[in-house]
């Protein structure tokens, strides 16, 4: 957390070193702030989970996912890039008990226009088009809604 004229930072998520306990992270790769409840949502990559931190409480939103990037659209849908499945999935906030919906990639690893190879960061525009950095193909892809 940054404060004006501060001389040092403050840890707000991930304490007690790397690990898999609820209060630990292991190779976090991205984070976003949920503006509706001011929680932090973190792609905890090596723990294969997306975890939400709200004050001192943690909740696993999505597990068993090789997550890398996160984004949230104006309607509160959460987007997560999966670098092993080479896809981006979307979940409605609060409904994480399903597999989500593939919105980009999902056709195996490759360089065709319907494929990704190690998707990383995600951006969602006002029209809900999905932009994805496609690391191993050295490109940025756009999927229109």
UniProtKB/TrEMBL annotation:
GO molecular function, one term: zinc ion binding
Top-level taxon of origin: Eukaryota
Matches recorded under InterPro entries: 6-blade_b-propeller_TolB-like, TRIM-NHL_E3_ligases
Entry protein name: Uncharacterized protein
Native species: Adineta steineri
């Amino acid at each position: 957390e940054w404060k004006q004229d501060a001389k040092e930072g403050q840890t707000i998520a991930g304490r007690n070193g790397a690990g898999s306990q609820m209060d630990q992270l292991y190779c976090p790769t991205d984070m976003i702030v949920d503006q509706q409840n001011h929680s932090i949502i973190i792609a905890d990559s090596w723990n294969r989970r997306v975890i939400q931190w709200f004050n001192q409480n943690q909740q696993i939103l999505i597990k068993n996912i090789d997550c890398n990037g996160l984004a949230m659209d104006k309607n509160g849908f959460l987007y997560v890039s999966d670098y092993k499945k080479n896809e981006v999935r979307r979940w409605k906030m609060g409904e994480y008990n399903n597999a989500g919906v593939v919105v980009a990639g999902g056709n195996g690893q490759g360089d065709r226009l319907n494929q990704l190879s190690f998707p990383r960061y995600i951006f969602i525009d006002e029209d809900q088009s999905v932009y994805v950095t496609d690391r191993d193909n050295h490109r940025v892809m756009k999927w229109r809604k």
